[in-house]
Amino acid sequence: MVRAQGDRRDRGSATVWVVAVMVLVWGAAYVLVQVGMARVAVHAARTAADLGALAAAQLALAAPQQACGRAAEVVVANDARVVSCEVENGVSKVTAGVRLRFPGFDEREASATSRAGPVYLDAER
User: Fold this and answer.
1) Does 122 map to a domain?
2) Structural domain of 33
């Protein structure tokens, strides 16, 4: 059996193309997973900050010295950490952070800030 001259040059080229396509597919999947992890961390930080601010606002007028402690309890219960907490004139401002670990990269932190204040009824004003 005699082979055509072009057959020898093309041997194994499919393997190279398959490997190249797989590298692109795995690279795209890695990027998408990292973006998804970052979005989840941002949402978790927002949730923790919102709930912490609401917990602090609940005590902001009655016991302002205890408000940040209560906010910290709520934020930690949501697997985050309190970056800052302020209570001023019945308004609480809480910043929460969530650690984000990317394989192969340094650890990062997603953070969010939320404010909450007292609700006044028309009769109270």
Assistant:
1) no
2) 18-116
On whether residue 58 sits in a domain, the answer given is yes
Domain count, the chain: 1
- Spatial distance between the Cα atoms of 84 and 100, rounded to a whole number of angstroms: 19
What digits encode the pLDDT tens for the residues 39-90? 999 999 999 999 999 999 998 888 889 999 999 999 999 999 999 999 998 8
The single-letter code of the amino acid at 53 is A
Buried b (16+ CB within 10 A) or exposed e, 91-100: bbbbbbbbeb
Please, are residues 116 and 95 in contact by the beta-carbon 8 Å criterion?
no
Instruction: Examine residue 101 and state whether it is found in any structural domain, yes or no.
Output: yes
Tell me the angle at which helices 13-59 and 64-77 cross, rounded to the nearest 10 degrees.
150
DSSP letter assigned to residue 105: S
- Kind and range of the H or E element at 33? helix 13-59
The answer to whether residue 121 is domain-embedded is: no
Kindly report which listed range (2-6, 75-79, 108-112) carries the lowest average pLDDT score.
2-6
